[in-house]
Design goal:
144 residues, mainly alpha, 9 helices, 74% helix, PPR_rpt, repeat, RNA binding
Amino acid sequence: MRPTEFALGCIIRTCGSLPSVNVGKQIHTHIIKFGIDITGYAGIALRDMYTSCGCMDSAKKVHDASSNKGIHACTKMMVGYARTGLFREAWAIYAQLEEACEQMDAIIDLLQVAGSVASISLGKKLHGCVFRHGYETDHHVKTA
């Protein structure tokens, strides 16, 4: 019996919330074995699981192989990098989002991460971006 992409994606999501990267890696192996396309739900779940578990090298491999590189995918990668102390990588993704004019959600997510990991340097950079883009009056930005 062949598992579906959705069933494997649900299992992977559970691994990310535990976090249980070893079980998630085993499921990733099954995804490869069964030839399941990682550009859909299973790929999103894999990337999210790896970022939640702090395995950014694996998350990047899945992210790079996926065609799903929208604002939510990039923000998840950016937050994962920031939470693991890889601020340069997080900032590089932010710069890509800024070029695409999709930075408001990214700023909010990064502000929350900067506060939770007590990164003053990242917080100062973001503070500058908030004012440069005129977001200082936005309620969501102010509360982040």
